[in-house]
Structures are given as C-alpha cells and as structure tokens.
Amino acid sequence: xxxxxxxxxxxxxxxxxxxxxxxxxxxxxxxxxxxxxxxxxxxxxxxxxxxxxxxxxxxxxxxxxxxxxxxxxxxxxxxxxxxxxxxxxxxxxxxxxxxxxxxxxxxxxxxxxxxxxxxxxxxxxxxxxxxxxxxxxxxxxxxxxxxxxxxxxxxxxxxxxxxxxxxxxxxxxxxxxxxxxxxxxxxxxxxxxxxxxxxxxxxxxxxxxxxxxxxxxxxxxxxxxxxxxxxxxxxxxxxxxxxxxxxxxxxxxxxxxxxxxxxxxxxxxxxxxxxxxxxxxxxxxxxxxxxxxxxxxxxxxxxxxxxxxxxxxxxxxxxxxxxxxxxxxxxxxxxxxxxxxxxxxxxxxxxxxxxxxxxxxxxxxxxxxxxxxxxxxxxxxxxxxxxxxxxxxxxxxxxxxxxxxxxxxxxxxxxxxxxxxxxxxxxxxxxxxxxxxxxxxxxx
Length: 444
Known about the structure:
There is one protein chain. This protein is of the alpha+beta class. It is built from four helices and 26 strands. The strands form five sheets. Strands 3-2-1-4-5-6-7-10 form an eight-stranded mixed sheet, with no helix packed on it. The chain has a six-stranded mixed sheet with strand order 8-17-16-11-12-13, with no helix packed on it. Strands 18, 19, 22, 23 and 24 form a five-stranded antiparallel sheet that branches. The relative contact order is 0.08.
C-alpha cells in the first residue's frame, strides 16, 4: 500500500511539472515599449524612445500572478502582468523553441481611447460622452509571429498605475503574407475577440477593409455593425460573410477573382466605442509568363546563313523577368547563347506584362554544327518556363554516327554487287573463249 502511495505522489508531482512546462510556453512574451519622448515640439516630428519590456501572461483572471524574476536589463516599470482570457498571446508562433535566437516582433505603445471620425463607426459614439470605464491606463500591442503568417493587434486596459492590464480587444490574422495566381479566389483572414465582461462587449462594432499600394489607397469595404449597414464603395468582386461575422467574429475578406490590381497592402480595422485595433496583410499576385517562339518551325538553314528567331513572354506579373537562350546539340550537350536583344516591357489592359527577346543564329560563328534544339528560357518569381524549336542545318561535311554507319553499309552493298557483277562477267568471258577451241578439235 505504501508503494502505491509513493507511486501516486510521484505521478502527481510529474503531472504538475509537465503541466507547468506546457503552460510556460505562454507565460512570457518579450516586447519593446515604444513611446514619444516628452518635450519635443516646434513642428518637428516627435522623437521616439524604445525600452525593453516583458509581459507575464495568464489566461485565468483569478489565477495567481507568475512569480518570476525579470531580466536584469528590463526596468521594473516595464514589467506587465497581463490577463488574456482568450489566450491570444499564447499562439505557438509567438513563442520560439527553447534556445532559439530568433524572437517574434512585439511592440507595446500607450493608447488613447477616442471617438472615431469615420461615418461607418460614428454610431458607436453618438452620445459624445466618454464613460468612466475609459479612465484607466490603455496600451496597444502589435505582434508578428515567427511563421510569417500570424499578425496581431491587441488593446489592453489596466487600472491606473497598476501595470496589470487585461486584453479588451484582439484583432488577428493568419494570412499576413499571401501569394495568389491570376483568377483564383483569395481569402484574407481577419478575426476579432472582445472581452465578454467588458462594458464594450454589447456596445456594437464596425469593420473596415482598406487597400494601400505605393502611397495610394482606397476603401474596399466598410460595415456598420450597430446599424447593420454597408457603406457604398466602387470596389467590385469583394465579399464579407455576415453570418460568420456575427457567429464567430470572422471579418475575413474574400476576393472572388485575383487580378494584378489587387497586389498591395490590406488593412483590417475593427472599431469599438472609443477603441480600434487593426492588422495589415500583404497580397502579391504572381503569374508566370507564357512563351512563344517565332518562326516555328525554323526554316532549313545552310552553313553561314543567318536566321533571326524571337521569343515573346506574355501575361506575367510582377514585372521582374530574366530571358535567355540555350542551344542543345545533337549529342545532348547544352550551352548558353546569351540573352539576345531584349525589348522593354509592355503592359496589357489586365495589368500583366509582356517582353520579347531576339537572337541571330549563325551556325558558322556560333558553332552550331549540324543543328539541334534552340530554347527560350524565362526565369520568373512564379516559376521557370521554357519553349523550344529545332534548328536543321543542311550540307554540313561532318556526318553523324548514323550517317557514317549508313555509308559503310551502302559501300559494303555496292562492293558486294560489283564483286558479283565482276564474277559473273568474267565467267561468261571464259565460257565464250572455250567454245571456238572445241570446234577446231572436232574438225581435225
């Protein structure tokens, strides 16, 4: 019985240690605390200060705070004990394996609640009064996962000077970077969570999707959740699932058919009364080129004759493309013929690009022998493409192995025929010479 008791105690201790080890992956998140330096004015851009910070995270509001000594290079005023009931900070992409030198990107900023000025979120603060709930210390946290796909923005509230904030609003995406082919549907993920015990939980929300590219932007979609109303925009082919928005707080955007003009940055913003959080995603439309060689097939060529061949690459995006030529001889050996003469890019109405390269084929100068396969090679971000034509050069003195074997066979055949003809002719001559001699013997 004592042995069973001992085993039970060991099992309990092992389970506790295992549980502590498992939960420790969500316990600590290192960040940078970034804010404006005080005393800067005169129309100049504000200088920023950056300090190391640590967040100790617990998911149970009633659980004990993590008692752990912070790193020596972290000021005690930048140590925060965060309550995160939805475990938004516990994603594995934010916690590298033990011993890893890479760290997720994480930044904490002071946050000031204020009424939104956009019309699709104006209904959230119609009273123009700031509730006492907003009288607290507010922070925003932006984090990027190690996997390159997770991006997150959280808004936290803490009692004044307590350094024990709780997550109130969390907006996240699992598609921080997306690549798509032309014509395919594209899903840009965006989900949000609101603390159920918060006074803002049932106060309404608004969703905004905005596009930016090279300094220019446009509104893709905006939804006023309090009045159940979409804002009219000029964007077509974009959709938001309303049922998923209310059932699971899924505000993902769907582009029905990817086009070149869709490449750029997409920003998903969630509005609550006096609060907002947003995440940004990068979408890149990548389409490899289609290749065509002209003329095809190539005409028969004599030694020393110059043949002009051109290769057109069309329908590709983005712009960067590397064109080159290759030659494969009759023995299968490949060698480069260079880039040829490459033209500038031309853009089609659908936004894709085309480009042409021209090459002069001179069998004598380029040592093309009896000919072979001429290939146009395109290297693009969307993949490599190749198109080939056959070059036949006639009248070349150097025969192939097959030609040599055929000539030997013909020579042997001719030799045999001549031998048979000579033997037959000689036999007939001998027969003709013997006949007059026999007649003379008979006459005598």
